[in-house]
Each structure stands twice: as structure tokens, then as C-alpha cells.
Amino acid sequence: MSAVLVIEDDDRIRLALQLALEDEGYDACGAATAEEGLRTQRRQPADYVLVDLMLPGMDGFECIRQLRRDDDVPIVVVSARDDTHDIVAGLEAGADDYVVKPVAIKELTARLRALRRRARPVAPADPPGYTVGELRISPQAGEVFRGGVAVSLTRTEFRLLCELAEHAGRVLSRQQLLQRVWGYDHGDERLVDVHVGRLRQKIEPDPGSPRHVVTLRGLGYKLQR
Fold it and tell me: At which residues is 4-aspartylphosphate found (predicted)?
């Protein structure tokens, strides 16, 4: 049984989410503050963490950053704030996905199942790696090197890079990437844009003028050979 930690200061919403998740077969626990949630996750790590942004004391953005520093647990923002700036900021802090309240539990659990599929090891490639310019990518080992230096990526960033590398030189639309990397038939394309931006920060010599992951305006992204 997968465990979910719900970090939400509204007692009513937190309890409702816990009960709904338990009805869907998850083992759910809750925390009313970011500090409590961080302690809980360190003491008894959950398989997924849901985080509200408007938390007392430490806010949800900083909570996500600290969670991400500790481990690679899948993180989903669950917030009433649906402004583009907030969504992008939550994803840039390190969240894997963003769900707007009020939450449809079937949609939320579908997102969690997609996260679980993405958490599985990437199938070995044939050949067992990709070389694109100064990048060396090993799907089997889960490793990326840039100019001989190891690059630390999240699961989602790694899967995104592998998908682009598998189709190096070809343009992949945002919807194609949502389906292949996130496992969503439909979804918010901002997920792709933010994760591409984070990936560029780690693999590009100059993220402001990317030479590896390039944008084809109106079409999508491709990894330059």
C-alpha cells in the first residue's frame, strides 16, 4: 500500500483528503504545518507528498525546496492558488505536479498513479546510452555527465532528458512530452515548460542561450545532435 503525506493547515480539507485517499487504497497521514510535515517525512518517509502553498510559518514553496533537498519523493502541490505565477513558482521550487482546489479525488489519484509509473527505473536503451555533444546519458545506470562531470537530476528531469535523447534531432510537442514523460493524455503544458527550464539550468553551459534543448516556437522542443 502506497503512503501519502498531506501537508495542509485547514483541518477540514486535510481530513477530507486523507479519508478520500484511504478510500482509494492509500495509507494517508497529515501534517498541519510545513515544519511538522518535514519532520514526519524524515521520520517515516511517504511515497508521495501533497503540499498546500498557504501554510502558517514556513510556506509551501520553502517546504517543497526542503523536501527536494532531502530526497526525490514525488511532490504534488494542492492549492486554491491557480495563478500562472504560483503554479510556475511551485514547480520551480521542485514540485512534480500541481492540482488546483477543489480537488477531484479521481483526478488526484490518476496523477499519483502516473507519478508512480514515472518513479520506476527507465528501461535500458539499446544501445545502452546516448551521447549528444558533451552530454553522456545512461538510461540503464540513471546517470548523466556533462563534460565528464556528473549532473544531478530529479526523476522527472531524467525521464524528460531521456525522451528527448531517444528522439534527438526530432521535435516533440508539449502534449507528446506530457504523454510520454508524465503519462497524461491531457494536461497543463506549463509542466513541460517549467521542467525544461529546470533541465536547462543543469545541462546547458548558458541556460539563457540553450544549445542542447532548443525551443521550436509553436511546435515544441528537441535535443540538438
Answer: 52
Q: How far, in Å, CA of 117 to CA of 41, rounded? A: 21
Task: Note whether 159 and 188 are same-domain residues.
Answer: yes
pLDDT of residue 14: 96
Structural domains of the chain, count: 2
**50 in a structural domain:** yes
What's the pTM value of the predicted model, to 2 decimals? 0.73
Mean pLDDT by runs of 10 across the 225 residues of the chain is: 95 96 96 97 95 95 92 90 83 89 90 76 57 88 89 88 92 93 81 91 90 92 90
Q: Are 107 and 94 in contact (CB under 8 A)?
A: no
Question: In this structure, is residue 124 part of a structural domain?
Answer: no
Contact 159, 192 (CB under 8 A): no
- Both 59 and 91 in one domain: the answer is yes
What single-letter amino acid sits at 51? V
